[in-house]
Design a protein that fits this description.
Low-confidence stretches: 180-185
Mean pLDDT: 84
Shape: globular
Oligomer: single chain
Distance between the termini: 23 Å
Radius of gyration: 19 Å
Order of helices and strands: HHHHEEEEEHEHH
Helix content: 40-55%
Strand content: 15-25%
Length: 191
């Protein structure tokens, strides 16, 4: 909600296409501006970045790789080796696991700012859930080696991720014991 008069520019696809033809650099600059705003919002809203000093946040975000997934595409499969840490930039993902009967049990949905993938890396074990894109999904991915470097040099990140792992482990154990879906309010998702 604007609290004062504002000016804005609206460019539709045909206008952007024409601009790209005439001034390719301008489209590049618009894209970089949009990415910077998107990453700035992510930095402000994701708990992962709260563990860093202000000047470190933009240095750390440069260590991540951008990845995109289409609807239904698997980001992480249950019982696989963990590859790193993911932070959702845009879209939503579904978290589920297969129980002993082979049934797929949906645990929760994740959205912008949520992190996942840390448990298997920090606990050095296989993944305990499957993460699937619900529609188009954009994530930032931090490879395992980089995550471990960051954790070794920043105890605040280690504490944050260990707490998150402990909370998620308790929820997972509850699921495995009950073999039923629990109230979404009982799930702890850190943003």
């Amino acid at each position: 909600i604007a609290h004062e008069d504002i000016e804005y520019f609206k460019l539709d696809k045909s206008m952007l296409d024409e601009l790209a033809r005439i001034q390719p650099r301008a489209v590049y600059e618009i894209k970089k501006y949009c990415e910077k705003r998107l990453f700035g919002n992510l930095i402000d809203n994701s708990a992962f970045f709260n563990a860093f000093e202000e000047f470190e946040k933009y240095l750390i975000i440069d260590e991540f790789e951008s990845q995109g997934f289409n609807s239904g595409q698997v980001v992480i499969s249950q019982n696989q080796q963990g590859k790193g840490l993911y932070i959702i930039v845009t879209g939503e993902a579904e978290v589920s696991y297969k129980n002993d009967n082979g049934e797929n049990i949906v645990v929760t949905n994740l959205s912008s700012g949520d992190i996942f993938g840390e448990m298997s890396v920090l606990k050095k074990r296989m993944t305990i859930a499957t993460i699937v894109a619900r529609g188009k999904l954009g994530v930032l991915f931090l490879p395992k080696e980089k995550l471990l470097e960051i954790v070794e040099t920043n105890s605040s990140v280690l504490v944050l991720l260990r707490n998150l792992c402990s909370q998620r482990t308790m929820v997972a154990e509850k699921f495995y014991q009950q073999q039923e879906v629990i109230d979404a309010n009982e799930l702890i998702v850190v943003k």
